[in-house]
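Deliverable D5.2: sample structural annotation.
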Amino acid sequence: MKLVYIFIGITFFTFQGCTTKEAAPELQYQQSKTDSIKTVTSDEPIKDDQLEGFAEEFEEEFSEQETTTVSDPLSGYNRAMTSFNDTFILYALTPVSEAYAAVIPQPLRLGLSNAVENIQFPIRFANNLLQGKFQNSSDELGRFIINSTVGLGGLIDVATNHMTTPIPAHDEDFGQTLGYYGMGSGFHIVLPFIGPSNIRDIIGITADSYLSPLVHVNGLEEYKIPQNFGQSVGIYTVHTINKTSLHLGEYENLRKDAIDLYPFFRDTYEQKRNSDIEE
């Protein structure tokens, strides 16, 4: 089962290249506040009310830094595992995905990616429902019906690309559901082949595996596509390579901005997950 979780995690986390994009506004916000303080201090006499304002801003900023501090008791292990994963992606996963992309035409790779996303519908539907997002659950149900029929088993994302009023997707998982109801993230941990995670998300991945038709679970074979552990590994290996082939170069572009790879990935991941929960 551990390897199953690994490949699930690869799907969920390793290729979420938008994390940096969503984390950027907060960093820019903090920089903007700092710039504003510097400008007033240098050009005008400081009045009592301004001093109070500065104190409030510093207190607010300090408070934000405290609330966003990541619990990291396994930092030594996490740093080593980040290096391992980085080497694996650069020297194994990426070259294999490049070769795969050279052989398989892009329309086929897009179709496979769409089909896998479509069949993971139970996870999104259930977690939207658990969070009381009934319209989102309705959208997910509509997308699944349309894409599974008109979209030829999910190969074509008709609901997004071929409707007068597109039906949006609403990605939710059980980790987000736990966060929605106030559960903290727990300490940060980097998993082999997966990348950044935390205790709350590991629990979420475990729960979602019972809903996913692509993960073999003993006793639930009649509801699952893979009938044994090996088939689950095969499905997720192909899916991971296929998905990577559609995002070649994105990981390299992300990592080149990092002065220190481990804290960069850790903080970006935690900020992205917090943003997902707040949506």
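Annotation notes: Residues 1-44, 61-67 have pLDDT under 50 and may be disordered. Residues 86 and 239 are 19 Å apart (CA to CA).
The annotation will be released with the project's public dataset once the embargo ends.
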